[in-house]
Amino acid sequence: MSRIIAGIIGGTPLASVPGSATRPTTDRVKEALFSRLDALGVLARARVLDLYAGSGALGVEAVSRGASTAELVEADAKAVGVCQRNARLVNDAVGRRAVTVHRGKVGSFLDTTGAGRHWDLVFMDPPYPLGEDQLSRVLEALAPHVAEDALIVVERSARSPEPGWPQGLQHFGERKYGETRLWFAEPADPDAAPAPSGSAETVAP
């Protein structure tokens, strides 16, 4: 059973999506990811966007650890219901509507998002069958909606190629945990030198 690992409601079990409609991030990968986010200092008061949210585990974990808000975007009806249940856990704990749930396709959500909306931390855990061209289009739609110092985390199969980063985003690191690879990106600095090769780190399963 998945759980919130740390923060104001650390240890609280999370509802899971029944069946195989989504591919949840394992607690092991989630713990490693949030340890890195804590080290980078990006969680405090962050505005979080959790795309292809599944159960919403990443978004609610972020709020438990100090993020200001999290928006969960999910298309599957069963998963949306689970997101709503998990959102209530955190909202009740913090005493405000910190986590909101949007039912719909990620592309449509981004296409209809107002120009003035920006997020500080974005999680993307698309289903593995999502094509690389589709993923690149979603990243392109996302790029105008990230804050100047935002961090984007893309979770993929370890066998998947590097995402195609659009103009406005640049890859700066990756981590491999068994069959899962996390790609990290940030808004592109047009004056910065390209990221050095060999930035990947493999963590044994």
Automatic annotation (TrEMBL):
Pfam families: Cons_hypoth95 (PF03602). One of its GO terms (molecular function) is nucleic acid binding. Gene3D superfamilies: Vaccinia Virus protein VP39. Keywords: Methyltransferase, Transferase. GO terms for biological process: rRNA methylation. Residues 185-205 have a biased composition (Low complexity). Residues 183-205 are annotated as: Disordered. NCBIfam families: 16S rRNA (guanine(966)-N(2))-methyltransferase RsmD (TIGR00095). This is Putative methyltransferase. It comes from Sinomonas atrocyanea.
